[in-house]
Design a protein that fits this description.
Blueprint lengths: L1 E6 L10 H6 L3 E6 L14 E4 L14 H14 L4 E4 L1 H9 L4 E16 L1 H5 L9 E11 L6 E5 L7 E4 L3 E4 L7 H9 L6 H13 L1 H25 L1
Parallel strand pairs: 1-2, 1-3, 3-4, 4-9
Antiparallel strand pairs: 5-6, 5-7, 7-8, 8-9
Helix pairs in contact: 2-3, 5-6
């Protein structure tokens, strides 16, 4: 199988997703959009993964590839290509599906518990993941598109995950984050308190085994969904 990956920042890559994709024999075509790579057509692949980034979904003038990603997501959903959107990627999926993305009531930076709804607990993407302790780094959040299935929430963010159609998923949290990625992000945190930066780094580093296990389980579930879609094509 082949996965198309849209990456928006050099320091926001596949992270913990990379190893399980390789172990499952999934070939990845990573498009470094910030470096000028073209936005490929999702219909030519078995799945689409849209990663996070430090811009917001409406900054299309500064980051013109966002318009092409919007069109690609619309086409992917229409063609029933399995989609996994992470943080910015999830917000872009929401926007492509007609829902607004807005400033959240509170930012989430750190490790937070994600609570699955009843629909989330029954959804195959979250099989084997009854509760998720996830890295979070966002100021914005998405509303639910019309017809979307609400899958998860957290204490500070009502919409942590949704599904539209059979296989298009948006996540607000970052299951892919590795401690070394997180450390680079912390270096860019505006006017950080040194003690706060160290505390944020330590909590993610301590949780690394759990985060890696969760990411691998979620990716296996997603690839299984993509495989099922492929077998019916």
């Amino acid at each position: 199988m082949r996965a198309l990956v849209f990456q928006h920042n050099a320091d926001a890559g596949l992270g913990y997703f990379g190893e399980p994709l390789a172990q499952l024999g999934v070939q990845t075509d990573v498009r470094q959009l910030q470096a000028g790579d073209a936005v490929a057509a999702p219909a030519d692949y078995d799945m689409l993964i849209v990663l996070g980034g430090d811009m917001n979904v409406y900054m299309e003038q500064a980051h013109p590839w966002l318009r092409a990603v919007d069109a690609a997501l619309r086409n992917a959903v229409a063609a029933d290509v399995p989609v996994l959107g992470v943080c910015l990627g999830g917000q872009l999926l929401a926007k492509a599906a007609g829902a607004p993305v807005h400033l959240n009531t509170a930012s989430e930076i750190g490790l937070h518990t994600v609570h699955l709804t009843a629909a989330g607990r029954a959804d195959p993407l979250f099989a084997g993941l009854p509760e998720i302790s996830a890295a979070q780094w966002h100021y914005d959040s998405f509303a639910l598109p019309a017809g979307a299935i609400h899958l998860a929430s957290s204490g500070a963010c009502a919409n942590q995950a949704f599904r539209i159609g059979a296989r298009a998923y948006a996540l607000q949290f970052h299951p892919e984050v590795m401690p070394e990625m997180w450390e680079r992000w912390l270096m860019d945190l505006s006017a950080p308190d040194a003690a706060r930066r160290e505390a944020l780094q330590l909590v993610v580093a301590a949780a690394a085994p759990q985060l890696q296990q969760q990411a691998a389980q979620l990716l296996r579930n997603f690839v299984q969904l993509a495989g099922a879609a492929r077998s019916r094509a």
